[in-house]
Write a structure and sequence with these properties.
The protein has 16 helices and 22 strands. It is of the alpha+beta class. It folds into 3 domains: about 190 residues, 2-Layer Sandwich (Heat Shock Protein 90), CATH 3.30.565; about 120 residues, Ribosomal Protein S5, domain 2 (2-Layer Sandwich), CATH 3.30.230; about 200 residues, Ribosomal Protein S8, Chain: A, domain 1 (2-Layer Sandwich). Strands 5-4-3-6-2-1-7-8 form an 8-stranded mixed β-sheet. A 5-stranded mixed β-sheet has the order 9-10-13-11-12, with helices on both faces. α8 packs parallel to α9. The longest helix has 19 residues. About 30% of the residues are buried.
């Protein structure tokens, strides 16, 4: 049998390795930012074009590299961070495997200019698909400038999987936030297509959070601090009243490295138990410092997952620390049974003088006497005469049960477009037999049995198709507000609203102004109240950040689904018979009445035979 196992060529092996490290332009941004931080840079610039597809450039003022190091840095497994295997368990740097630059150079056009402070000339290196095009000396300032152009130019299939520029920019912004929050002592500048998105000076952690998420974030933050032998915890949590539907503002940093840990996230949510709604998530920015030998950060190519030696102890410490901060800063409501609130004096009345009340009494007043001229102006209760009460019943006879007077009465009802099921009984009879079960289901009868409908899912389907129709034909009616609503948002959230602003306008939202950190709304759809506007926009931003929106159709679909879910009647709401009947008729007038917009069943049918079998 012939030998069939062969060694892969270097360029193929590099492309396979690149698939693990570089998934999208945001992966390139993460690796290059971490390299700049490891180079002891104090000012880092990030330049993006076309969502990172055309250009990702990092300019730093770090220590730079010599000509030999610059050439060697693009080789696989070339690194200055570790020397032996034991160093993997005592890491203090960001990158250490030596695969980032080699993987990036295998799938893009890369240019690098680098110069150490002690050198007079810089090194200019150009690489395309792992092949060095040229290397020469040039003039450049201290530090390193690395440009990555035309990502995945030699792997068209991978490039086709990239999303739109807006989606890729959102992922890049997320990675930028994670790195910038972990290193407030470094200045960052972020440019997209020539415009500046972020200008973050060197500052402390609290100010860095405020600079990224807006000035209104400052009032939300509650400090967290705890120092134990196992871990040192610092950072901030958001007050419970600012919990959001989205998971956006939730950051864990271990030794200044962003991580994802569902286990530690559960510790935070359990500390907030009873303070936030079940479908809301508290925000937090927590920095954990542990012994590098007690964690393993080499279990995932992106290094965002960390394995702790003793997770259970860390969970307990983190949970108690957050609870302590909530109580220490009077965030948690408390009851003091030893203090009588009725005996407390308001601050406004503390220094006021006592005023003697003035009371005037008319000693000659008698309420049982007739009104005299002497007491003109004084109200007197006079008993009404009951004489002639029989006149109230003139014209009535003893025929109480006679209904001839109602012969001309007409009952207004909705137009019935058709029967729900074949052989269904008359709709007026359905009105009498439709009832609500457990404030969750609507039960209505048909000739062969009965139908049990989930009221929330049914209303979601009705609203979903209604919103889709309004967006498609652009016939939504907007109600103008007497006083505009001003809502604060972060720069990232403003970017999402700007992206979907046109679609929101087709359903009735009118934005008079979209600023850097707030929006002003002057019109809302007819079925939306002012109190629901903030809730709806928060839910919309959350859904759009979680979904990958590629075209206008998917954007319209997410918009209609979110509005339907937010505005639909909820489980527990009481519906009268007229509302129940209207919902049933609207449901079966929909194009798809069996499943909700989220592909869940809306109703079930129970035939008379099924009921008979229960009595056998």
């Amino acid at each position: 049998m012939a030998d069939i196992i062969k060694l892969l060529p270097d360029h193929v092996a590099n492309q396979i390795a690149a698939g693990e490290v570089v998934q999208r332009p945001a992966s390139v941004v993460k690796e290059l930012l971490e390299n700049a931080i490891d180079a002891k840079a104090k000012c880092i610039k990030l330049i993006i074009k076309d969502g990172g597809k055309s250009l990702v450039q990092i300019v730093d003022d770090g220590i730079g590299m010599s000509a030999t190091d610059a050439r060697l840095s693009f080789e696989r497994h070339a690194t200055s961070k570790i020397q032996k295997a034991e160093d993997l368990f005592n890491l203090s740097t960001k990158g250490f495997r030596g695969e980032a630059l080699a993987s990036i150079a295998a799938i893009a056009h890369v240019e690098m200019q680098t110069k150490p402070e002690q050198e007079e000339m810089a090194t200019h290196l150009k690489i395309e698909g792992s092949e060095v095009i040229h290397q020469e000396i040039c003039v450049a300032p201290k530090g390193t400038s690395l440009s990555v152009k035309n990502l995945f130019f030699n792997i068209p299939a991978r490039r086709n999987f990239l999303k739109s520029n807006q989606v890729e920019l959102r992922h890049i912004t997320d990675e930028f936030h994670r790195v910038a929050l972990a290193h407030p002592g470094i200045a960052f500048n972020f440019y997209n297509n020539g415009s500046e998105l972020f200008n973050l000076p060197q500052t402390n952690r609290r100010q860095r959070i405020v600079h990224i998420f807006g000035n209104r974030t400052n009032e939300k933050l509650v400090p967290v601090a705890e120092d134990t032998q196992v871990v040192k915890i610092s950072g901030y949590i958001n007050k419970p009243e600012f919990a959001k539907k989205s998971r956006g503002e939730q950051f864990f940093f271990v030794n200044d490295r962003f991580i994802k840990s569902p286990y530690l996230h559960h510790a935070i949510t359990s500390a907030f138990e009873g303070l936030v709604k079940p479908d809301s998530y508290p925000g937090y920015f927590l920095y954990l410092e542990v012994d590098p030998s007690s964690i393993d950060i080499n279990i995932h190519p992106t290094k965002t997952e960390v394995k702790f030696d003793d997770e259970h102890t860390l969970y307990a410490i983190l949970r108690s620390t957050v609870k302590h901060s909530l109580g220490q800063f009077n965030v948690v409501p408390a009851l003091d049974f030893e203090q009588n609130q009725n005996l407390e004096t308001p601050y406004d009345y503390k220094n006021k003088s006592i005023l003697q009340p003035k009371v005037t009494v008319d000693k000659e007043f008698n309420p049982f006497q007739e009104v005299s001229q002497k007491h003109v102006g004084i109200p007197v209760l006079k008993k009404q005469s009951t004489e002639g009460w029989e006149n109230l019943y003139v014209g009535l006879d003893s025929k109480v049960g006679n209904d001839e007077g109602f012969s001309s009465m007409q009952i207004e009802s909705d137009t019935i477009t058709g029967s729900i099921f074949e052989g269904q009984q008359d709709p007026t009879e359905t009105l009498a037999t439709t009832f609500q079960l457990r404030r969750k289901y609507i039960v209505t009868t048909i000739k062969s049995g009965m139908v049990v409908i989930d009221q929330s899912r049914a209303h979601q389907r009705v609203l979903y198709e209604q919103f889709l129709r309004n967006i498609t034909i652009n016939e939504a009616i907007s109600q103008q507000l007497l006083f505009p609503i001003t809502l604060p948002f972060s720069k990232t959230e403003i970017g999402v609203l700007t992206e979907i602003k046109e679609s929101l306008g087709t359903i009735g939202f009118v934005f008079s102004e979209v600023g850097i950190e707030e929006v002003k709304i002057t019109g809302v759809p007819m079925m939306v109240t002012e109190s629901e506007v903030a809730l709806i926009l928060d839910q919309l931003i959350s859904d759009f950040q979680l979904e990958t929106i590629e075209d206008s159709f998917s954007q319209t679909d997410i918009l209609a689904k979110t509005l339907a879910k937010t505005l639909a009647v909820k489980t527990g709401e009481v519906l009268n018979n007229a509302s129940q009947l209207a919902l049933v008729n609207d449901l079966f007038a929909c194009k798809e009445s069996m499943v909700s917009p989220f592909s869940k069943p809306i109703y079930i049918t129970i035939s008379e035979n099924d009921i008979d079998k229960k009595f056998i």
